[in-house]
Amino acid sequence: MTNKKKFTQSFTQQESIPELGIETAIEVMRSGRLHRYNTLPDELGETDLLEIEFAEYLGVPYCLACSSGGYALHIALRAAGIEHGELVLCNAFTLAPVAGAIHNSGGVPLLVESTDDYCIDLADLEAKAAPKDVRFLMLSHMRGHIVDMDRIMEICKEHGLFLIEDCAHTMGASWNGKKSGTFGDIACFSTQTYKHINSGEGGLLTCSDDQLMAKAIIHSGSYMLFENHQAAPSKAVFDQIRLDTPNYSGRMDNLRAAILRPQLADLDTQCGRWNARYEVLASALEKCKKITIPERVKEEQFVASSFQLSLFGSSPETMQKVVAECQERGVTLKWFGADEPQGYTSRYDSWQYIQDIPELSKTTLMLSTLLDMRIPLTFSLEDCSLIADIIIDVVETYA
Fold first, then answer.
1. Which residue has the higher pLDDT, 358 or 289?
2. 136 with 80: CB under 8 angstroms?
């Protein structure tokens, strides 16, 4: 490679918080009333308003703002009545907080194979859902890739599975026109910095069931202030639940909610901007015969805040060389197939708190050549074109 092109921007630099969010956050700080329940009589705090607005956005009755997406997943299982040691189906290709949330709830992850298009393997799912003692599926729409949700719902109905959707990467996405997060019994979203709306840390839990939401609200740490919640069931639903349900204290505060509300109002526009960048990358990278990009089916209206590609047939040594050379030229790629966890990425067999981790040959093979890249909106379309050129140059040299 001569006259090597280089990229000089950061892959972790996000856009600034909208001015309205900054101004509202300053008002909250000046008031000193950051706690969600520290409001004036008849006042709706920023957290209340965020919950109302996100429920309206999804078209569901109930929303709960939490301290993180992982915490939301944890109390989703608790609200659903998981028992200690109970199995929970989940993607083998996911991020560590998903399996961690299952463990935190007292459950045991039952890992399901993943396919070459990065989605849960429906055949393996159905086989593992067959035993009568399997009641839960925590489905990750990992890196924004949405599996056939019509088939998922058929499997859940056939086997009586309680479905929790992990929508950390699909806020704003849809399947066949139906919003991600409105298929399952409960959905959980993340507002961590690298997600579609950014409060540093944070999460949102949504559902349509009175009992489940009442339990989640008490779990979140409402004490006896559950009546303050607006996107919530009526007071009567809480009569016994308020006494039977433990407090796990994981609330969102008014400061983070203030930051999020203007971003939520602009979410669909931002989703379009991410997808425009994805299209530039995909159009360029698919021309390289050594690179495989999964086809996105017409039913999947995705939000591409990250990009994934596979170098099928490449050795671990080749993968390491590609990652290292791209990094040398300013392009940060993460390899999910590495033997040792690195940064945010880890392979399922590194979660050794799970006893008797199965050998998942399809997932292991898929991860062995999978590369992952963030697409921050601080990148222009021209930046994405340059990034694609660098990746192609490196892959054609080393792979």
1. 289
2. yes
Q: Which of 73-82, 202-211, 309-318, 350-359 has the lowest mean pLDDT?
A: 350-359
Cα separation of 153 and 82, whole Å? 20
Q: Per-residue pLDDT tens for 182-198?
A: 999 999 999 999 999 99
DSSP 114: B
CATH topology of domain 267-398: Aspartate Aminotransferase, domain 1 (3.90.1150)
Q: What beta strand segments (E) does the chain contain?
A: 62-66, 87-91, 108-112, 136-140, 162-166, 174-175, 178-179, 186-190, 203-207, 300-301, 306-310, 334-335, 370-374
Strand duo 87-91 + 300-301: pairing = unpaired
Give the total residue count for the chain. 399
As a whole number of angstroms, the distance between CA 27 and CA 25 comes to 5
Cβ neighbours of residue 99 closer than 8 Å, sequence gap 6 or more: 90, 109, 111, 348, 351, 354
Number of C-beta neighbours around residue 81 at 10 A: 13
Q: Domain locations in the chain?
A: 19-265, 267-398
Instruction: Classify burial at 188, counting beta carbons within 10 Å of its beta carbon; exposed 0-12, middle 13-18, buried 19 or more.
Output: buried
Q: What does DSSP say about strands 370-374 and 334-335: parallel, antiparallel, or unpaired?
A: antiparallel
Tokens read off for 134: 């399997």
DSSP state of 292: B
How much is the average pLDDT of 39-43?
93
The CATH class, in words, for 19-265 is alpha beta
Give pLDDT, residue 2: 53
- Cβ neighbours, 10 Å, residue 336: 24
The tokens describing 229, both together, are 């919640």
CA distance 137 to 110: 9
